[in-house]
Amino acid sequence: MDLGLKGRWALVCAASKGLGRGCAEALVGEGVNVVITARGAETLEQTAAALRALNPSVSVIAVAGDIASEAGRAAALAARPQVDILINNAGGPPPGDFRDWGREQWIAALDANMLAPIELIKATVDGMAQRGFGRIVNITSGAVKAPIDVLGLSNGARSGLTGFVAGLARQPRLAGRNVTLNNLLPGAFDTERLQKNFATGAAKQGVPAAELAAKRRAAIPAQRFGTAAEFGAVCAMLCAEQSGYLTGQNILLDGGAYPGTF
Question: Is 109 left (phi over 0), alpha (psi -120 to 50) or beta?
Fold first, then answer.
């Protein structure tokens, strides 16, 4: 299916690797020009080169910087004033016990996983409405639906973003102008971050990382971890011209791990 996105411009955050890169690859494959951001300049440039090779007909602009900072956002937005598609993404805050977190840790989590996406939405959504097309996808977490006890910082910040988006997406001045806002909630995906989590857990428990990975995999009905490519494909689907009637939703992509009905 042609998603009707050829020639559009997308800003994809934290796109040098993992799920962000998967989204950028899927969009580039659909003929979308992209501005990609990440903090690591070297890895980001390598990803940009790979994206250009994937589809030489599109423009790929790499902007190194921290999207959670005002300067990082300004640089990314200045690279291409018109943003038709916004993919909000940022690494999650560290796990731990809430008794150990002070204001500094909470503000950092909110800045990266709630306030930065909101600032980018604020900077782009009105232009989308004026042009009569806009797609915003926020990469959050399956923990929004099923909180994980050691991820309190993430649970709180991402849930705050979810509540904000739920109200904004239903405003007629956006939904009525073909601008949609949806959240994409990943479960366990085979990314560098997941492998690091297994390594950290293995070191603490004194067991092989492969053992922890096998246990986690067995708990997923699909009996495997997701891939960045299939995550990106769903992201691109949410951005499609045909998805204009889908807004304000939380799309859970977890291989069936969430046990609830709703």
Answer: alpha
Q: Let me know how long the chain is.
A: 262
* Sheet-wide strand order for 60-64: 60-64, 33-38, 9-12, 85-88, 134-139, 179-186, 250-253
Q: Tell me how far apart the terminal alpha carbons of the chain are, to the nearest angstrom.
A: 29
SS3 33: strand
Residues 6 or more apart whose Cβ sits within 8 Å of residue 186? 19, 139, 141, 142, 226, 231, 253, 254
Enumerate residue ranges in the chain where pLDDT < 50. none
Per-residue tokens: 197: 């989590």
15-40 pLDDT, tens digit per residue, is 999 999 999 999 999 999 999 999 99
What integer pLDDT is reported at residue 201 of this predicted model? Answer: 84
Strands (E), 73-116: 85-88
Nearest one of 162, 156, 232, 148 to 197, comparing CA atoms: 148
Collect all residues with Cβ–Cβ distance below 8 Å to 91 and sequence separation of at least 6: 14, 112, 193
Supply the pTM of this predicted model: 0.95
| Contact (Cβ atoms closer than 8 angstroms) between residue 72 and residue 37 | yes
CA distance 174 to 4: 20
Q: Report the alpha-carbon distance of residue 155 to residue 16 in Å, rounded.
A: 24
For residue 142, what are its two tokens? 């399956």
The Cα–Cα gap between 18 and 2 comes to: 25
Strand partners of residue 35: 11, 61
